[in-house]
Amino acid sequence: MPFVVGDNCIKCKHTDCVEVCPVDCFYEGPNFLVIHPDECIDCALCEPECPVEAIFADDEIPAGQEEFIELNAELAEIWPNIIEKSDPLPDHDQWTDVPDKLKYLER
Questions:
Q1: Which of 6, 24, 69, 90 is spaced 20 to 30 A from 40 at the CA atom?
Q2: Is residue 98 part of a domain?
Q3: Is there a domain that residue 107 lies in?
């Protein structure tokens, strides 16, 4: 059961999770991070590190966010790997806990 980055990461993109990942399975887009499902070893180290609680085990993803399972897999194949922590997006505070942010995802 790999972990999945969900809706709340969009337009925030904190990278605290990247720093603790032992297998470097995070990939970075313009305003969102994803986890490569074939590289994730289910260690769960990333989940508590996310300041906006946007990381879930794929069998515990909140209702209405199931499409993020496929989205993580798809985008991890095309986005570059990220292995170091960086600053969140400049206006991340304004976007924390805003619901239904999928429409703002930049590919």
A1: 90
A2: no
A3: no
Structure tokens at 6: 């969900």
Which run of H or of E encompasses 57? strand 55-57
Judge whether residue 1 has pLDDT over 80.
Answer: no
- State the Cα–Cα distance between residues 89 and 31, nearest whole angstrom: 7
The per-residue pLDDT of the chain, averaged, comes to: 97
- Which CATH number covers residue 33? 3.30.70.20
Quick: pLDDT tens for 6-44.
999 999 999 999 999 999 999 999 999 999 999 999 999
The set of residues, in sequence order, having a beta carbon less than 8 Å from that of 31 and lying 6+ positions away, is: 10, 11, 13, 89, 104, 105, 106
Cα 95 to Cα 66: distance, rounded to the nearest angstrom: 21
Task: Specify the DSSP class assigned to residue 62.
Answer: P
